[in-house]
User: Fold this.
Amino acid sequence: MGYHLLDPDELDQWDDRPTDVRSLSAAAGYEYQNSKIGFRVYELAPGEQSGLAYHYHDEQVEAFYVLEGTLHVETPEEEFVVEADQAFFVDPGSPQRAYNPERADDSVRVLAVGAPSVDDAHPYEPDEG
Assistant:
């Protein structure tokens, strides 16, 4: 059996992304590639997005749970506004861009889950629909 108690505030920046991201799954020993789950906490200042630009995944399901603030998720059909204590799920093949608008007054803190944790993201150009 294995158990891992982690505090995201005690973890280092996960990678070279321009936003604050802490990987709980990596700290627990789950590799980034081909793991059953990716589990990260993002702190997005006004004008920042959650790591990836507008994109979609072949097989990964993404879920965003807003801990503090308001997350905006742009999709081809509409923009969703996700408030604190709400969750937003993205099915494979569904383009999205999660971000905190430049006009926002505060940062947004988000728990992001990707399952499985695979590097299957593809850029999405809205004009190419």
Summary: The chain has one domain: 33-124. The CA atoms of residues 37 and 117 lie 5 Å apart. The chain has a mean pLDDT of 92. The first helix runs from residue 24 to 27.
